[in-house]
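Weekly structure sync, notes
Attendees: PL (lead), two postdocs, one rotation student
Agenda item 3: pending single-chain targets
PL asked that the sequence for the first pending target be pasted directly into the notes so everyone works from the same version. It is reproduced below exactly as submitted, 261 residues in total.
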Amino acid sequence: MPIRYETSDGIAKITIDKPPLNVFTPVMHKELYEALREFTADAEVRCGILTGAGSRAFSAGDDIKTPRPERTRLEVIERHLAPSHAYDSQEYPGWEHEFLTMARYKPIVAAVQGYCFGQGFIYLNHLSDFRYASTDAVFGMPEIAYGMGGAGGALSLGKMIPHTAAMELLLLGDKIDAATAERMFLINAVVELEKLMENAEAAANKIASHPPLGIRVEMESYQRGLDLNRADSMAMAGHMYRMARAVQTTTPPLAKKDAAE
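Predicted structure, written out during the meeting:
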């Protein structure tokens, strides 16, 4: 299958595997959605790694050679408003919309090599929380040159990186190298290709070594806090923290007090 999902020692590895450039066909979006559902549901899996097969690309985006059926304007609108599962997964838009809105409170580390464009760029930013890139990695959103806008809104890219960096990527449509991506805070570090997976696995294993409840609380409170005001964010995080600490404490507070007396 073009999307490979493997687990080992609490780590899930999701590989985009459609050589030579790992471009997405419509059915691959569904496969990735199903892999993510399995990842989030498996209590034994604590962290994920997202990468592309080979050395040429993480993913160069959608496969523009995939045939699209002829549709009237009304059919296009009706399909746009319908849930993805109401239509054949061999067509755009498809299951990518389903998992771009699904909740994910487990961390994913990305390992990026070669080209990372378009839909590949969107998935990188939406589906990973910690990112390594090889020295030959190239990033970009070239769709604007063809009048295809909207990725910045779908990603809320301005919440991830500085406004000026987001505008540079979205409006110029230029390709940027790994060093520039690091400067823009798109990635955490640039490493040699032969060290790429080693670094990603080390980060994933370090995250997986922490108590899973703590990771779960940190992920959800962080994500929800982005859309809340300061007071509501503090309250929500405080409640989640106290509940997590309550179940992690083996000795009841009253017993501790009695012992002290």
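Discussion points:
- The longest strand covers residues 3-8.
- Residues 3-208 form a domain with the 2-enoyl-CoA Hydratase; Chain A, domain 1 fold (CATH 3.90.226.10).
Action: rotation student to compare against the earlier draft before next sync.
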